[in-house]
Design a protein that fits this description.
mainly beta; globular; Jelly Rolls; seven-stranded antiparallel β-sheet; Neuraminidase; 6 helices; single chain; eight-stranded antiparallel β-sheet
């Protein structure tokens, strides 16, 4: 809507008309005075014009062309351009010649709009014809002063001078975008959606929409300003588009991927938009700070059980014997780490139960506790109270220190340390309550197990109890999961029993949701943990201020270890139903995340090759994985994106902000540039062909009634039909400033 303050109303000074339409003109002519005149600069074309004879001189940089819609770019080739005929052309035109006369070289002087949509400047481009021709000079983006030089524009608008203006349009912008795929740089391009989408790049990558039906295709594309058949893909939470792994889409260093997406609510779920990622590669997703698809239970002789959030056992394994597990931890990549004090080892276990690697300790070490920070594994030797650090590829790091805390400790959301010592719970060394086991949920409640079968929730900041409960049998451990429940993400608590093969699943208020019987596995879990819950609470949820965020991950092979770098931005600034264009670039040692062609986050990365753990597929609308069957059982459908996607592009180099702008503009309709040229004071006459009456002082209402008299119709159905006909008819004749209030039957 246009604000009233931005509307310029024309003031008329004279009226020219006849008398009762008998003399003079049938329609009146109003006279007015103004000092400018409109000119339309057409898209995708060059407009020639003379600067008005009566206009005052002025500089191009002082004109309003840029604010009126001129398109900026990184070189003349990409932007709006204006030329001035530097010559005396009175012999070919009724207008005069260019000024000043000392610069009448007979050539067209070109100025171009340099910059982007938020910051632009008119520049004059000069070039040395002994080194470069005019066509090449237009394309140069980083000019050498000895060959091509840009200066802040000195072009002036002079009365009678001749100009031509080129305004970028849809056709020209699409041509610019086409140049980005030169030298086979475009590795994948999907624009139109069918069950087997066609890759428009030269690589003809094979793609397929899984769980496809005809309802997956929509005309509600990102291209909203066009009246075309451009379509988009509807992702409903179970379908996704898979592109088979090829070297073309497995870039090794620099890259760009670009995708349009729309969601009714970005805050719902861990929604993976694009993934060439499983413990390596790259991705783009909406992250809630949690991802807990499975849990792991272990008894005191090494029996291991992996269970999904539905309470269904997936994998049952036994650690190498003899075995006495003492602690479990699960990292963000879903590797399970088990400390075995009998074998004096820490095992790294995949989610199919296979031992991938191990750390071996000296026989004198007492392995009682392991934990994870944002990057490393920490192991406690309870004999010496020395904690040692390892990377997640089992390489020992130099960091070691002596701890004064016991193995069983929890860091709450405010970085307070909670510990249990001989049946008592302490907060930062101050006793709070009695208890044998403690855990912290994402809402900063400490759950305490005490008196064998009882538990209570304590709000960490105040240490005030908020809820308590009990079970019929002794319980040993409580921990949490974050699950999709009837469309909403919800926390659940899990309690293990001390002497029975049962697990209690409760809601966050302690109400039992499910009892899981482990009799068939002959396992009484002494240790339990849940996929990355505590890791995500401390290193995702809290550091991102407890709100969802867009993120892109990149794994770098920084031998001998692997580094993951992440660029992020909160979804709060984009939580609307509009389409958004997401662009991710990696250029040497920089990872960039753009939304709607605006840079949102930049992260420094090492200039090493991208690391891929698997040759997994590229998935649009979901997460990619090596072991697809297992991942489905682990409820990875929760990671599928719900919404619309369109126009996927992948390049093997980093596009700059100007290139990204050009791609962004492919979805928006360019319009003619309407420019008000100053003319000096001039008188004009305008024909008035239509009048509208507006509200004036003293008018009481804009509404009117219609009275129907003498019809004597009592049937309500007939009355409603007649009223409908009247309402439809009067729309054609009622003045725009009035509105029907009601129809009265008399």
């Amino acid at each position: 809507m246009i604000a009233a303050s931005s509307v310029n109303l024309r003031e008329y000074s004279r009226i020219h008309t006849g008398t009762n339409q008998e003399l003079g003109y049938e329609t009146p002519f109003f006279g007015y005075t103004t000092n400018d005149i409109q000119i339309a600069l057409k898209t995708d074309g060059t407009t020639y014009f003379h600067y008005p004879h009566t206009a005052p001189s002025g500089l191009l940089i002082d004109s309003k062309l840029a604010t009126n819609g001129a398109i900026a770019g990184k070189a003349p080739f990409y932007s709006d351009k204006i030329w001035k005929k530097m010559a005396n052309y009175t012999s070919t035109s009724i207008w005069g010649d260019s000024q000043p006369e000392g610069k009448q070289t007979g050539v067209w002087l070109c100025s171009w709009l340099s910059g982007n949509v938020t910051n632009s400047t008119w520049m004059d481009r000069w070039y040395n014809p002994g080194y470069i021709d005019s066509n090449d000079a237009f394309i140069v983006t980083t000019p050498l002063s000895s060959v091509v030089k840009d200066i802040v524009s000195e072009m002036s608008f002079e009365p009678d001078s001749y100009y031509k203006y080129f305004h970028v349009g849809d056709t020209y912008n699409n041509m610019i975008v086409d140049t980005l795929s030169g030298e086979n740089n475009l590795k994948l391009n999907i624009e139109n959606w069918t069950q087997n989408p066609v890759d428009l790049s030269i690589y003809n990558n094979t793609s397929r929409i899984e769980n496809f039906d005809n309802g997956n295709i929509s005309n509600e594309s990102a291209n909203k300003q066009y009246n075309t058949n451009d379509d988009s893909l509807i992702l409903n939470g179970s379908n996704y588009c898979v592109t088979i792994h090829t070297s073309a889409i497995a870039m090794t260093n620099d890259y760009t991927f670009n995708i349009w997406a729309q969601s009714d609510d970005w805050t719902k779920g861990n929604n993976t938009i694009l993934s060439k990622n499983n413990r390596g590669g790259y991705n783009l997703k909406v992250d809630q700070g949690f991802n807990t698809p499975f849990m792991v239970f272990c008894d005191d002789v090494g029996k291991l059980l992996i269970m999904n959030n539905n309470g269904d056992a997936i994998i049952s394994k036994t650690l190498p014997q003899p075995s006495k597990p003492t602690s479990l931890a699960i990292d963000e990549y879903n590797f399970t780490w088990v400390a075995d004090n009998s074998a004096k080892k820490v095992y790294k276990i995949d989610y199919n139960g296979d031992i991938l690697d191990q750390i071996t300790f000296d026989s004198t070490v007492d392995l009682q506790y392991i934990t994870l920070d944002s990057n490393n594994l920490w192991c406690l030797n309870s004999t010496t109270n020395i904690i040692s650090s390892f990377d997640l590829f089992t390489a020992k790091l130099s960091t070691e220190f002596v701890t004064t805390y016991t193995a069983l400790s929890v860091v709450d959301n405010d970085n307070n340390i909670w510990t249990t010592i001989t049946g008592l719970v302490y907060k930062n060394g101050i006793q709070v309550v009695s208890g044998n086991y403690i855990a912290c949920d994402k809402d900063n409640y400490i759950w305490v197990i005490f008196d064998s079968n009882k538990y209570q929730k304590i709000y960490a900041p105040t240490t005030i109890m908020s809820m308590s409960g009990s079970f019929d049998d002794a319980i040993s451990i409580v921990n949490f999961s974050y699950e999709l429940n009837n469309g909403d993400w919800t926390d659940f608590a899990y309690f293990t029993q001390t002497n029975n093969p049962k697990i209690y699943k409760t809601d966050i208020n302690g109400k039992i949701i499910k009892t899981i019987d482990l009799t068939r596995y002959d396992l009484i879990p002494k240790l339990s943990t849940f996929t990355s819950y505590d890791w995500n609470r401390r290193y995702n949820y809290l550091i991102h201020n407890k709100e969802p965020y867009f993120k892109t991950d990149l794994f770098i092979n920084n031998s001998p270890t692997i580094i993951k770098k992440t660029a992020t931005i909160p979804v709060s600034g984009f939580n609307n139903t509009n389409w958004h264009m997401f662009t991710v670039t990696r250029k040497d040692s920089t990872l960039n995340l753009y939304i709607d062609s605006v840079l949102q986050d930049t992260v420094d990365v090492t200039n090493e090759d991208i690391y891929y753990h698997y040759e997994n597929t590229l998935v649009l609308g979901g997460d990619s994985g090596k072991i697809e069957t297992l991942r489905k059982e682990l409820s990875y459908k929760n990671d599928y994106f719900k919404g619309y996607v369109d126009s996927l592009r992948i390049y093997d180099y980093a596009l700059d902000i100007f290139d990204i702008n050009s791609i962004y503009f492919t979805k928006y309709k360019f319009t003619d540039l309407i420019w008000n040229i100053p003319t000096g004071i001039q008188n004009y006459i305008e024909e008035i062909v239509r009048f509208f009456k507006f509200k004036t002082s003293g008018q009481k209402s804009l509404y009117y009634n219609i009275n129907l008299i003498g019809l004597n119709i009592q049937d309500e159905g007939v009355r409603n039909t007649i009223e409908g006909i009247i309402k439809n008819t009067i729309k054609k004749v009622t003045p725009a400033y009035t509105e029907l209030y009601k129809i009265i039957w008399k």
